[in-house]
Amino acid sequence: MRRTDPQPLASRLAAAQRELDAFPKKTKVKDRAEKHRQAARKVARLHAKIRRQRLDHAHKAANFLVRGADVIAHEDLALASMVRRPKPRPAVDGTFESNGAAAKAGLNRSILDAGWGVFLDILAHKAECAGRELIRVNPRDTSRTCPECGQVAKENRDREGFECIACGYGDHADRVAALNIAARAGLAL
Ligand SMILES: [Zn+2]
Question: What is the DSSP letter of 160?
């Protein structure tokens, strides 16, 4: 039976880290009091748990994508970090992975960011094994470009989503990015 998590792992880790931080920093590991050791073990255990969950999720998501599409396009990770975009999104035959929703807390975000490279490695491996094509595209302005008329403006994006200031095209922001990624990959939808 699956144990239900009353608290998301990220906030449990944050709490455990705060507890650990309350102990004196410079204490050598062998001189630590039992409570201090317990706190350190708890942080390590939660880190490991998050790592396992992330890997499990990455495998499931990659399987889903590889099963459902012959061609998969995603933003180039190296380029994405250069242009300081939060995260690339895969676009698959018109479907897309919404990945912004969970990235609220800074801690949450860093966990997801660190996981993205791992996910892309897993995806690349599965795609190759299954004979699927994986296309990396330049992530520049994928969330600011209108998929309808090509207008590029940061004003196209607001808290509500995407609305083109030139032609009025409106859509969910993640879907707009996915459409642009697919178009750059040369995928006809
Ligand atoms: Zn437009």
Answer: T
